[in-house]
Design brief:
With 194 residues, this protein is an alpha+beta fold. Helix content is 25%, strand content 30%. The chain has a five-stranded mixed sheet with strand order 3-4-8-11-10. A five-stranded antiparallel sheet has the order 5-6-7-12-9, with no helix packed on it. A two-stranded antiparallel ribbon has the order 1-2.
């Protein structure tokens, strides 16, 4: 059923995969992430952001500019929530990390860091450093509260689309470019080799 709804939204209701009106009321970016459709999520994320952000006030329009109210807290809040989903998102007793980041964020010497961010599982720390010129991407994850997640899924996309040929910890799924750590014990140091 979800597939039918997404197909309908994408084909009929959306302009370039953004809602016809009030894009932040549409749940499809979240559904794309849940289905590991990173490109579709990013298309909706950037198209909504680029079309609704007011470049003078740094606030968001409710509808496309000129057709609704400016400075909408709802839209600003949902932009921030989609950004959070891009970086971390909970699913039951599982924590998904970086499932929505653009591939280019993992170019050589790039760092993605989340320092003491709030998750349903308590404070979270993540540091990912790309060393693809040396053939690896390194990640450190810390979430040491008693209610920590049972499973962590960390997406580490190579900037050129290469698949990992080695891993030091966890199980690597090349189709989603994700490392699954189960059971998660509160910390993990992961090195993907390319």
């Amino acid at each position: 059923m979800t597939g039918i709804l997404i197909d309908y939204y994408t084909e009929i209701m959306h302009v370039r995969n953004v809602a016809l009106s009030q894009p932040y009321y549409s749940p499809h970016p979240w559904i794309h992430l849940r289905r590991n459709e990173t490109k579709a999520f990013l298309k909706a994320y950037y198209n909504a952001f680029a079309s609704l952000a007011d470049r003078e006030t740094y606030s968001f329009w409710e509808h496309y500019p000129g057709t609704g109210s400016p400075h909408k807290m709802h839209e600003e809040g949902w932009f921030l929530m989609q950004t959070r989903w891009m970086l971390w998102m909970e699913e039951g007793d599982s924590l998904k990390l970086l499932s929505g980041i653009p591939r280019r964020w993992m170019k050589n010497n790039k760092i993605v860091e989340l320092d003491n961010v709030a998750s349903y599982f308590g404070p979270l720390y993540l540091n990912v450093e790309s060393k693809v010129s040396e053939g690896r991407i390194e990640a450190k994850i810390r979430c040491t509260t008693e209610r920590r997640p049972k499973t962590v899924e960390l997406r580490l996309p190579h900037p050129e689309g290469k698949k990992a040929i080695g891993i030091n910890y966890g199980i690597y799924d090349p189709s989603t470019e994700t490392v699954k750590i189960e059971p998660f014990k509160g910390y993990a140091d992961v090195v993907l080799e390319f």
